[in-house]
Amino acid sequence: MARLFKKAPLYARNSDYIEKYVNDSTEYIVFDHHNFEMELMKSGMDSISLWNVLRLTPDVYRAVQNNSWIIKNELVKFEKEGIRDRAEYVLD
């Protein structure tokens, strides 16, 4: 699974893109959706469930240089209304 997250698409590596869209360290990480879907299909994982889990949980990454955790503050994902249903879906 770790290899699914190794390469960003070429457009996201462009300095113009970075200047325009990257505001914090978690925004350096961009999925190459095509390759991601291909790897999911090869591994037999359910892509719909995985994308739903990614949408319902905060972005969490581990820095390569110092192994520290980077967690994006996405407070909307912790809103009280519906959190039980979201948590049950993700944990299932």
Write the layout of secondary structure elements.
Blueprint: H1 15-21, H2 33-43, H3 47-56, E1 60-62, E2 69-71, H4 83-91
Antiparallel strand pairs: 1-2
Regions with pLDDT < 50 over 5+ consecutive residues? 1-5
Describe the biggest sheet? 2 strands, antiparallel
Radius of gyration, CA atoms, in whole angstroms: 15 Å
Contiguous helical run count: 4
Q: What is the distance, rounded to the nearest whole angstrom, between the alpha carbons of the first and last residues?
A: 19 Å
Strand-residue proportion: 5-15%
Please, what is the average pLDDT? Answer: 82
What are the secondary-structure elements, in order, as H or E? HHHEEH
Helical content band: 40-55%
State the total count of DSSP E strands.
2
Explain what you see.
By secondary structure, the protein is mainly alpha-helical. 40% of the residues lie in helices and 7% in strands. The chain contains four helices and two strands, in the order H-H-H-E-E-H. The chain has helices spanning 15-21, 33-43, 47-56, 83-91, and strands at residues 60-62, 69-71. The protein has a two-stranded antiparallel ribbon with strand order 1-2. Strand 1 and strand 2 (69-71) form a beta hairpin. The chain is globular and about 40 Å long.
